[in-house]
UniProtKB/TrEMBL annotation:
Gene3D superfamilies noted in UniProt: alpha/beta hydrolase
An example molecular function term from Gene Ontology annotations: hydrolase activity
Keyword Signal part of the UniProt annotation: no
Protein name: Hydrolase
Record keywords, A-Z: Hydrolase
Domain AB hydrolase-1: 41-270
Protein's UniProt keywords contain Protein biosynthesis: no
Amino acid sequence: MTQLDIASQDAATLETAPTRYIEGHGIRFAYRRLGPATGTPLVLLQHFSGNIDAWDPAVVNALATDRPVIAFDNAGVGRSTGQTPDNIAEMARDAVAFINLLGLSEVDLLGFSLGGCVAQQIAAEHQGLVRKLILVGTAPKGGEEHLLAVLQQAFSQTDVPDPRLPLFFTNSSASRSSGLAFLKRTKLRKDDRDTDNGSAVTDPQAKALITWCATPDPGHATLRAIRQPALVVSGSHDTMLPANNAYAMSRELGNAQLILYPDSGHGALFQYHETFVSHVRTFLDAQPAAVTEDK
């Protein structure tokens, strides 16, 4: 990487960074890399149906001011080739393949919703690869989900400008106002926007999330295999993956902090983007605490 490349990368935002590609394992992965060239990279794992441009620039750009941040499309999503798997294990396998193709030996993970399930799988299986873990609006294996019911309700509201408004935010005026601001930010990028691949992505992703939550995990084996420091975040009124999932995860993880944002839904990290970024920075910059003994 030349000094010019480094300078351009430092100055790039989610709205201006070029979409890059890297190929291996039969997949051509699309990604954008922001922030400084040094430091532990923060890899973003996206929600159900989301691509790179579904991330909130206010979150991604702020996090990238002092650390490398990588947003990417997993297999079959957006501009990445390959087929979207219908299970979390294969999604995790593809994400690890992408990380390895970039030559990264240690990363932090931020997994939102479906991406949080993938992040749990990766952290449990790859202790040496994942330094710290941020789980937002997600559920453990065997957790509670209301994906199809919430989607049906959201898409039935024909008077809203975007289904993400009822999906991610509450009915309060403050939350709805934050939601409209979020939607505006996601449309700031005008050129080289990511693509929506429709049911080829959403059908297998829905199956993966529903199966993950429907599969018992005796003794919370997956969570207990995660020894890395974790930050668990939820909205108080998340209807898709309720906040009791976050509480359950924080209890079973060996080294976890729990944050619950008030009057917020599935998109709490976008509603409270400044507070969320501050919490993430504090968590990532802190010296890791000692792992607790098995409970």
